Description:
Blueprint: H1 21-26, E1 29-30, H2 32-39, H3 43-51, E2 58-60, E3 63-67, H4 68-88
Antiparallel strand pairs: 1-3, 2-3
Amino acid sequence: MPMGNKPNPERPQSATLIMDAQMIANEAWYTTGDIMQLFKISRSSVYRLRMSKQLPSCQLGGTIVFPKSLINKVLLDKALSQAKGFFEE
Length: 89
């Protein structure tokens, strides 16, 4: 097992998603501008959501990108939670 993959008992496990090269190669990505248009929010709101881990993101080179499949899951989860409340009333 490579040194970087050993769990460190002194450091708590984070909720970080580890993507392998195959996942990255097949993933479509949103930019910050795409997220701003999709959610109709400001750049600072994108930053705040990203920093609070409400929007999954990673840095490729010097650019922050958002995995399209995970952003779509966030949108679907939000829509389903709103629909659940609608049908329960």
